[in-house]
Amino acid sequence: MTVNMASACGCGTPVPYACLQRGERVLDLGCGTGDDVAQAAALVGEAGHVFGLDKSLEMLQRAVENAAVRELANVSFLEGAIESIPLADGSIDVVISNCVINLSHSRPAALREARRVLAPGGRFLAADLLVAKAGLPSEMATNAALVLGCSNELWTAEHYAQELEDAGFNMVSVEVFARVPWRQLEAQAHKTGHAGLLGTLDPFVVHDALASALVRGCA
Ligand SMILES: C[S@@+](CC[C@H](N)C(=O)[O-])C[C@H]1O[C@@H](n2cnc3c(N)ncnc32)[C@H](O)[C@@H]1O
User: Most exposed of 32, 71, 105, 184 (fewest Cβ within 10 Å)?
Assistant: First the structure.
């Protein structure tokens, strides 16, 4: 049996930036097939625990199978929505997420829920997509996001930081680490079935206009 990584679809590598310590309790929002869960599990060790939350039973099934192949004893997978996390207040030390918040039908609710489950002093660290070019026409921003597989209008870094503060986080930061070039949009459009939208995008304008960012906050 081999680890199934067919769904690997994140937009970053949040785990190395989460500064995980042995014994910590971690929650991965939208865990997919559990690759970030596995990385986190190795860092928190036997005294720690990592929860993977996803709304898709198919993804969770693959995550459970992958965890068994990896012989992970300190992980659990939960079915549920990131807008209504099935965990108690203050029960988690670190919330991570890889390219999922942008998919939420209520991003403010997802951020409030992440803040609610964090213990005092807890940390939130997500990789996510955003708009990184000022003045990008809104129709082009919407269509470029659709091309990347995101049905929501993407936030700017400033908007994201404000939403984190509104959700109750302190010491927030939003740091772009990779922009999305035109060639990547072209390639992704075919994968997401939105090749028809490419004609609505001006390559010169949308080139490097969307980006992956590390989004941080403290409880
Ligand atoms: C882009 S994939 C990212 C998966 C994983 N984090 C990774 O980096 O490979 C999005 C995942 O988030 C899950 N997801 C999307 N919206 C969700 C929501 N509102 N609540 C829970 N899971 C969600 C999907 O089922 C899918 O597994």
Answer: 71
**Residue 22: pLDDT over 80:** yes
What is the domain partition of the chain in residue ranges?
Answer: 15-129+153-178+211-218
pTM of the model: 0.94
Instruction: Answer whether 32 contacts ligand 1 (Cβ < 6 A).
Output: yes
Task: Enter the tokens of residue 69.
Answer: 């192949």
- Contact 59 CB / ligand 1 (< 6 Å): yes
Fold of 15-129+153-178+211-218: Rossmann fold (3.40.50)
- For ligand 1, whether the C-beta of 56 sits within 6 Å is yes
Burial class (CB in 10 A: 0-12, 13-18, 19+), 55: middle
Angle between helix axes 57-69 and 35-44 (nearest 10 degrees) is 40
Atom 24 of ligand 1 has which residue's CA nearest to it? 30
Ligand 1 neighbour 82 (Cβ under 6 A): yes
